[in-house]
Amino acid sequence: MELKEKNIPKQLRYQFGELVLDVQDGVFTPTGTTEVLFKAVQKYIKKPGKILDLGCGCGVMGIALHQIGVVRGLLYASDLSEESVACTKKNADRYNCPVVAKSGALFDPWVEEKFDYIVDDVSGVSEEVARISPWFDGVPCESGRDGSSLVVQVIKKARAHLNSSGCLFFPIISFSNVNNILNAAHENFSNVELLAHEEWPLPKEMNQHVAILRKLHEEGYIQITEKFGMVLWFTDVYVAYNL
Which residue positions does the secretion signal occupy (predicted)? Predict the structure, then answer.
C-alpha cells in the first residue's frame, strides 16, 4: 500500500520506510534500534490488538504498526515529553492513524488501561553515555548511571497493564546494565524470549570518548566489545509474557 503524505512544514524530518515524520526540537530522533524493534514486533504479532507505544517520541513505532494493520482500533501512545506527544499527534494525523496520546511518566497516563501489546521504547542508555552520544541532543535522559532504571520500572509495572495473554516488547541496549534488566524481566514474567540481536559500530561522534566507555564497561555498567580496532555495542529485542 502506498502511503500518501500531507504537506510537511517542519524542517527536520525522519524517514522510516515509506513514513516521513516530523521530529521537533526536544523530541528523540529514532535510531537503528527503532528499526530492529519494529521488525521484531512486526514478525511476532500474528493478530491485531490494543497497542500502547510507550516512550512514543515522534510516534514512529505506533504509526508504523498501524500502517501494517496490527493496531486494533485506536493507537495508544505516551511520552514524558509534551513536545513528543504533540509531535506524535501531528504525525498520526498525517497518516490517518487514530491515536490517544498522553504526556506522563511511564504508565502514569494509563492507570485504568490494559493492553494486548506494550511496545517499550523509553530511554535505556547510561546517562553518562547519553551525554557523549549523538542521540540525546536536547532530549533528557534520566535512566541512571547504568541505564537500566527506566526499563526496569517499565518491566515491573507492565504486568498490571497487560491483558491475560498480553505481551511486553522491549529493547536492551548494551550501553546499559543488560543483566539487571534481564533479571527484572525473569522475575516478573514466566516467559522471556530473545527476538532479535544486532551489533553496531561506535558512532564516530563517540570515538573520542572511548576511555569513558571502557571505564563504564570495566565497572559493569555497560557492555562493549573491541574487535579489529572497532568498538562494538548491541541491541537485543525481547518479548515477555505470562501464560
Answer: none
Q: Specify whether the CB–CB gap between 85 and 78 falls below 8 A.
A: yes
Residue 173 pLDDT: 96
Which residue numbers in the chain have pLDDT < 50? 1-11
Q: How high is the pLDDT of residue 6?
A: 40
Q: Is the dihedral of CA 17, 132, 129, 102 positive or negative?
A: negative
Q: Could you tell me which residues are beta bridge partners of residue 191?
A: 241
The single-letter code of the amino acid at 106 is: L
Domain count, the chain: 1
On whether residue 7 sits in a domain, the answer given is no
The answer to whether residue 219 is domain-embedded is no
Q: Which residue has the cell 514524558?
A: 80
Within the chain, strands assigned E span 13-16, 19-22, 51-54, 75-79, 99-103, 115-120, 162-173, 191-201, 225-227, 230-241
Domain span at 92: 13-200+234-241
